[in-house]
Write a structure and sequence with these properties.
Elements lengths: L1 E6 L11 E5 L24 E5 L5 E4 L27 E7 L6 E7 L17 E2 L12 E2 L2 E2 L10
Parallel strand pairs: 1-8, 1-9, 6-7
Antiparallel strand pairs: 1-4, 2-3, 2-5, 5-6
The chain binds fe (ii) ion.
The site of fe (ii) ion has 2 residues, from β5.
Length: 155
Amino acid sequence: MLTGTVLRPDCKTPVVGATIDFWHCDHAGAYDIKTPDEKIAPENYRFRAMAQTDASGRFMFETIVPGRYGIPPGLEGFEQFAGQTRPAHFHLTVTHPIYLPLTTQVYIKGDPFIAKDPWAMHSKLAFTLRKGSATAPSTGSFDVVLANRPGQRRS
Ligand SMILES: [Fe+2]
């Protein structure tokens, strides 16, 4: 159970009605869409969801812990990392009419593959996954801070 709050650039005020486009791979590290050019019917989407933040700027996604996968060969700019294992991660794009869109990845603290991953190694976007039980899900929480668009007044 992943929860969090989308915040204004002041890092305090919630953003109501932000859209979060959320996606990740399955437990074995496979995505429903294998290449950037592949098109599949929406009914075949797997591990994708969209949500809007509520009146408190909160969001919630209930899902699995995604598996890890290898960086494919020939990925432009990342050729030297081909075959290296990526840490488990969640992708998200957060949009709102007033703020700059944000596309990023979120990691799970303690994943040993974060240290050498070209995307994760410099990221501060890792949350603590608290183990659940037979009757309660594992939980994690992270907040998202949106930036002003260029030329926009501070808010
Ligand atoms: Fe990914």
